[in-house]
Amino acid sequence: MNASPDDGKKPENCNGTMENNAGEECPSAGAPLCEALQASPPAVDSDAAPPRETLEENAPADVVGDAAACGKSADADAAEAGPSRSSDAAETGPTRVVSLREALQASAPADTSGDEPPREDTAPQNPHDAATDAAACEKSASADAATDESYREGCAPPDSEDAATGTSPREESGDAGTRENDVKDVPRVPLGFYQARPLRKAATDLPPTFCSRIYTILALSPLLTLSAMLLLQTVFCLNARDLWFSDEVRHADAFRWLLDEGKGVLLYMNGAPYPDKPPLYFWFLRALYTFLGTEGPMLHFTGAALSALLWLWAALAVGRLIGRADRRTNLASGILLLSTGYIMGLIHYGRMDLLFSALILCSHILLYRALAGSGQDLPRTAAAFFTAGIAVLVKGPLGLAFPLCSALLFVIWQGRPLRLFSRDFICGLLAGLLPAAVWLLLVFKSTGDTSFILDSLLRRQVLDRALDTFHHKEVWYYYLVRLPLMLLPWTLLFFCLPWSSIRPRDLRACLGAARTPETDGAAYLWCMVLSALILLSCLSGKILIYLLPVLPALSVLGARSVLGARSLGARILRWGTALQLFAAGGLALALALIIFGHLSLPAAIKGLPGALPSPDPGFLLVAVLLLLFGALVWTGLSNSRPEGVLLIAALACTSLGYPLGGMVAPAFDAVLSPKQQALIMRAYADKGYTIASCKVYDGIYSFYAGRVVRDLESTEEAAALAESGKLALAMSARRLAEWNDKPENLVEVHRQWIENREYVLLAAPPDPDIRPAATSFRPAPDLAAKIDAAFGRVRDRVTDLFRQVRERVTEKNAPR
């Protein structure tokens, strides 16, 4: 009975070649799809042979016959066989695992008559797979262990002389009569899951360079290299700036209520229930608070950095366990992620999305392992959906929807949609719903109100956001337009693909023969991307950050395109990256000149920013670094080898970590953080004033104000409070301009741009002793004059210095 492809086994009656006894072609386990179709040898990296640690990465994760795997490596065999063996290896291409049965068959004399009966000592009729053949070579394992310098997946082939003469190692011992018994006594062991899915190497035909060799060294431990990059980007910026509008200050206030009031089951914000977010991320911050002892910005930025680290590790696991990427490809995918502009900013922003995405990626890994197997797998399926259920408690139902939609698309690709109705899948779904059910039960126990759960949590936060949202409503093609912008500067990878080698006929053939163990990992990555895009495009509410779980899958696929780029694609990658760095550096330089008053905005967009950040040398430093890295990519690389571009990208994102997070980001506090007005409101509250806001995003002042800020629904309520007592009121400048019957005792005391609009703080009556803690950083009219005066003083000083030097030289050389 032949083994199914899902088992990852070689069909029976295979004689060790590519045909069985009936003359039918046998599928080759472990061969990539297009290699099997086009009969082309696997790509071989053109770099010098990496050390043993690099090559051993390709060893299967759960090979049953690891202890019995034996044989000499191709290099050791070539050294022993001499030049002839090396030339034979060069002509025949990559070494193929030769089974013991194949060696025995090669020793039989050729059948020239056609009627000669089979010999008694020929190989048995029931062959064994590669793992069994590997176990049969256990006698030579100990002898070869000392000289083995490279990775091998099974028993290496016999020496060329043995293959030519048809003799096997067992025949050399003079015990040819025991060959049949030896083969029969070998136990039959099925191929392991990852043995049937070998690591896929991405190689280029371009010659190796200094950069590619440095890259190979760094690829010895992608986890360590990428973790160090992330650490250097974040560790110096954990307490550099204030919390910004709107999510950071709202989440900080919700955490303060959890910490001070014990509101940990159902979150509270500004004195009212906050059903927008589940509590798990705030429990994570509570555990982190035990070590840091602060509830300020440092706590939230440390939580974001640790979440980014977990997300990075999960992304590497996706590339390794699903995409079957080797270390070089995994390092490239991590560099693509960390050097993406969107990710560079997100790791410095206090949100739960990175932790949410990390849990979703872990669920994908377990779910792929369960669905790619030949039968049901209840433990892994239940663990996958339970992990997705934990993600639901971090941010919401999308944590379960992402893996579920990917599983649906994957089983359709496999051609077995009934897998969704299997016992393990149904039990897994129940396990995924369990965390949310327990949380809702705790909420009901805390509130005792069923209507709150049905109306606020389920209807408003789930159904309304999905069908007709009250916030972030966009058109259906929103993500198709924004995803290329999100991937900058790596959007140009689309142009580096080998489009010239893709033909419709070959594509149809690949799709028709793609249901193999070697290709199901790449298929699952595409299912992750396509299912997420389809799901999110159907929802009413759309935010770009929802695509975060998709980026690791795209990075693995993109890393293969980078490392396997041909000459033209590599040149496009190099020149495109350089041009983007030049463009980003030019924009940063222009912004610095505008902020410092040396460049005026065009009249058409002069009112667009509303307010500019405070002047900081970090803007100039960022501009200079971007231009330098652009010049390095353009002129510093001797050829178009892709690893050089990746190394410079890694160096650039690491070097820009502190200038962006520690210098540029704090300059935006003046226009993105409500801290200035909140501190003034806090000072008025300390003197007995009622602090309130009218038609302002709820909760943006309460964290820095340190108390509840009353939310007013109309200006009539504000007028009544102003006439009856002391009031400090915040509202937008546009709404203030529309307030015609404003009380006369309500006087403006502070004005500030926050994000995209101007907010005004009014007091009735104003207290002259309370002054703004900081001024609004709208560029003052005399700022440019002050900067010009400073530059003028420096210029005058330098001119005077040169004049003095010239006078002394003239006096020294003058005739006496």
Structure description:
The protein is mostly helical and 816 residues long. It is 54% helix and 4% strand. The strands form 2 sheets. It has a 5-stranded mixed β-sheet, sandwiched between helices. Helix 12 (222-234) runs parallel beside helix 29, helix 16 (327-338) crosses helix 26 (551-563) and helix 16 (327-338) packs across helix 29 (642-655). The longest helix is centred in the C-terminal third of the chain and has 31 residues, at 783-813.
Question: What is the secondary structure topology, with strand pairs?
Answer:
Elements: H1 33-38, H2 52-55, H3 74-81, H4 83-92, H5 100-107, H6 130-136, H7 141-145, H8 160-165, H9 169-172, H10 179-185, H11 210-218, H12 222-234, H13 247-261, E1 268-269, E2 272-273, H14 280-292, H15 297-321, H16 327-338, H17 341-346, H18 353-371, H19 378-392, H20 398-414, H21 423-447, H22 450-467, H23 478-486, H24 504-512, H25 520-538, H26 551-563, H27 567-595, H28 617-635, H29 642-655, H30 657-667, H31 669-672, H32 675-686, E3 690-694, H33 702-705, E4 710-712, H34 715-724, E5 727-732, H35 733-737, E6 747-754, E7 757-764, H36 783-813
Parallel strand pairs: 3-4, 3-5
Antiparallel strand pairs: 1-2, 5-7, 6-7
Features:
816 residues, mainly alpha, two-stranded antiparallel sheet, 36 helices, 7 strands, flat, disordered N terminus
In short, what is this structure?
This protein is mainly alpha-helical and 816 residues long.
